[in-house]
Each structure stands twice: as C-alpha cells, then as structure tokens.
Amino acid sequence: MNDIRIIDENFYQEIMAKSKLELPFSDFEDNVMSKIERNVSNKPIIYVKLSWIFFVVGSMCGIVVSLILPRLHGTFLGLLPNKLTMVFQIAFTLIFFFQIDILINLIRKYKLAAIKKT
C-alpha cells in the first residue's frame, strides 16, 4: 500500500515538474499585463457613451410608441387602446427609471475607477 502511494507521489511530482512554463523573456509577463491594462482602460469610456446613446434611442422609440398607441382602432392582445396605452406607459416609466439608475451608477463607477488610477 505504501509503495503505491510513493509511486503516485513520484508520478505527480514528475507531472508537476513538466508543467512548469518557461517565459521567453524576463519581463514578458509585465509587458503582457501592461498591454491588457491599456486595452481594458479604454473600454469603459466607449461603454458609457454607447449606453447613453442606446438609452436615448430606446427612450425616443418608447415615446413614439406611447403616442401611437392611443390612435389604434380595435383591440390588441385583447386590450382596448386606452388600457394598452396605460399598461405600456407604466412599463415604459419603470424601465426608464431603472435604466437611469443603472446609467448613473455606471458613471459613478467609471469616475471612481478614473480617480483611483491617478
């Protein structure tokens, strides 16, 4: 039984010794990490701007739909136009304020990250 454990330990030690990687240069890891950091640091600005653009576009579409809904004739999904308009406006308002909250938190997070870098 002890022989099997010794063989297993030797086997695992050999495997672990073979898994050790040799880096091509002494500063290879530092160079790679600095490139990653530069690429990642530029992304939040783009994401914040895109978030605001899509928020404004979505809000405009929601406003247009809420203006068109009362002009419908007949029922849609079994709801009269005035009830459908009310349901849509409530849902739109909730989503609008939740998205405003998320965007404000995103801006705060971005500003905190920018302050920590300096």
Strand content: under 5%
Report the strand count.
0
Q: How many helices in DSSP terms?
A: 3
Instruction: Give the end-to-end Cα distance, rounded to a whole number of Å.
Output: 60 Å
Overall shape: elongated
Average residue-wise pLDDT = 77
Which parts are unreliable, with pLDDT below 50 for 5 consecutive residues or more? none
Sketch the topology as an H/E string, one letter per element.
HHH
Number of domains: 1
Largest sheet: none
Radius of gyration: 29 Å
Helical fraction: over 70%
Q: Which structural class best describes the helix and strand composition?
A: mainly alpha
Question: Can you describe what's shown?
Answer:
The chain has 118 residues and is an all-alpha fold. The protein has one domain. The chain contains three helices and no strands. The protein has helices at 2-18, 28-68, 81-117. The relative contact order is 0.07. The model has no long low-confidence stretch (mean pLDDT 77).
Q: Tags for this entry?
A:
mainly alpha; elongated; 118 residues
List the helices and strands and how they pair.
Elements lengths: L1 H17 L9 H41 L12 H37 L1
